[in-house]
Amino acid sequence: MEFVQDYVTLLPRLLPPSIASPLLTFVTTAFGIFRTLQTHLTPLFTRLVTQPDAASILVVVAALFISFKILDMMYRAVLFWVNLVIRLVLWGGVGLVGLWIYNRGVDGFVQDVQDLAHTWAGEYEKYSGEVKRFQQDQEAQIRLQAKQQGGRRGWR
Question: Which residue ranges run through the membrane (predicted)?
Answer without folding.
Answer: 14-34, 54-71, 78-102
